[in-house]
Specification:
With 131 residues, this protein is mainly alpha-helical. The chain has a single domain, classed as Up-down Bundle (Vanadium-containing Chloroperoxidase, domain 1), CATH 1.20.144.10. Helices cover 70% and strands 0% of the residues.
């Protein structure tokens, strides 16, 4: 399926705006909760990769992976075959790498999912502006 004009623009803008809202929520929670990362607390955990920031809660990678999967999956269901395994691997990797606790990942996923549920409303607003 090839999309033209606002048919392609609206899903892109919707996803981008919701992702931006996710980033704001993520940043606010990071600085308010200041939860140390698992590798900082438990010396037996070997750091798998360098973190992008200091604090653990919530998992921003998981938040965005769920947000993108759910939002884009509603527009392009055929992509779900690729996006669902990718989303699950992103979430799992955050814990395996010693960067997040399971609750960080679960809350990040919940925020991403909750924000993705706003996509139809955002779509309607954007469609009204772009028509």
């Amino acid at each position: 399926m090839v999309l033209y004009g606002s048919e392609a623009l609206i899903p892109l803008l919707t996803t981008t705006l919701i992702s931006g809202a996710g980033l704001v929520i993520y940043k606010l929670l990071k600085v308010k909760t200041v939860r140390p990362r698992p590798y900082q607390v438990h010396q037996v955990i070997v750091l798998g990769e360098r973190p992008l920031d200091v604090f653990s809660f919530p998992s921003g990678h998981t938040l965005q992976a769920v947000l993108f999967t759910v939002t884009l999956g509603t527009y392009f269901p055929a992509l779900l075959l690729i996006m669902l395994p990718f989303m699950a691997l992103v979430a799992l990797s955050r814990m395996v790498l010693g960067l997040h606790y399971p609750t960080d990942v679960l809350i990040g996923a919940g925020i991403g999912y909750g924000l993705a549920l706003t996509a139809p409303s955002m779509h309607a607003v954007l469609a009204g502006w772009l028509v």
